[in-house]
Design brief:
Layout: H1 10-39, E1 44-46, E2 53-55, H2 56-72, E3 77-80, H3 81-85, E4 97-104, H4 106-111, E5 117-124, E6 127-135, E7 140-145, E8 150-154, E9 160-161, E10 177-180, H5 188-202, E11 217-219, H6 224-233, E12 238-242, H7 246-258, E13 262-264, H8 267-274, H9 287-291, E14 294-298, H10 309-323
Parallel strand pairs: 3-4, 10-11, 10-12
Antiparallel strand pairs: 1-2, 4-5, 5-6, 6-7, 7-8, 8-9, 12-14, 13-14
The chain binds L-MYO-inositol-1-phosphate.
The site of L-MYO-inositol-1-phosphate (LIP) has 14 residues, from strand 4.
InterPro entries: IMPase, Inositol_monoP_metal-BS, Inositol_monophosphatase-like, Inositol_monophosphatase_CS
EC number: 3.1.3.25
Protein name: Inositol-1-monophosphatase
Amino acid sequence: MSADLQTLKPVDLRSVLTFTVKLARIAGTLILEGSQAIQSTSDVNEKKNSVDLVTEYDVAVEELVKSEIAKAYPSFKFIGEESYSSGTRNELTDDPTFCVDPIDGTTNFVHGFPFACISLGLIYQKRPVLGVIYNPFLDHLYTGIEGQGSFLTRGNNQPLKLPLTNPKPLPSLQKALLAIEWGSDRGEKNLISKSDSFLRLAGDPADGIAGGRMAHSIRSLGSAALNISTVAQGGLDLYWEIGCWPWDVCAGIVIAQEAGGAVIGSHAALAAATSAGSSIDPFKVTPDVLTGRKYLIIRAIPDTPNETGREAQLRIARDFYQTVEDVEPK
Ligand code: LIP
């Protein structure tokens, strides 16, 4: 593929995917080496507070990835978590732009909890079009290209199309396995709002929790990218987070959408798209949704005689947003 391509066609994206998968696997080796080393040192730095962690490996992996991308695709732009943290703020343009979290799940990485990954998304004309998420601890590789499906490759096995099994109907939140995250903002306003939301998601309405949905259970994998991938594969019904960033979700958005998942922004975005007479597509990931730091991802749901899968996803999204509170991320 020409590095100066003005238009990216599906066939070009396949070649970008081949490159990106190779890069993810090289980065994965570095992440594993780092994990061994970090267990025996206390070399962990803090960003905005003592739970917002960064290690020399986050920085090294991002540097490696950035320089390999610059060699292979010199005209592509780059947005990376660690570059952003150290002050490089690239605007979103129509140009092909890699959006990268070198280690998503840094806290897991530091603690040796084997759910950390590299997340490499490609944005083109301001929408995510390609995603690669690689968890080197489990050797799980998730890939997706807009219009070409998404896949999970475990070890050296053949890629499996996502979702892994035919999706089942989702009658209500009560039947759901949900993923949420505490995030790194531990201030009173954010945390009380989040814990009130979690209380209503889990709580028994017949035993004192007003508005409780008593969902089957709640999980936190500690990595936005892996939460989204697990929704795409069908292992979680839904994932919600306020406060993460485009590099946490960009690759996952493509993987989830290609698996029939719905990616929805904030309470306000859903309300605007579903209000009477609205012409907004509630399933479209606009730049505002991509950068909005509020994400709700719902797995594929099949059509039934009573409602389409899309209607079911909207029903679940509406009920979810009636249950949880909106809060502004720091
Ligand atoms: C993390 C996310 C996680 C979220 C954290 C943080 P990092 O990314 O994936 O789900 O709760 O706030 O954003 O910092 O490990 O790359």
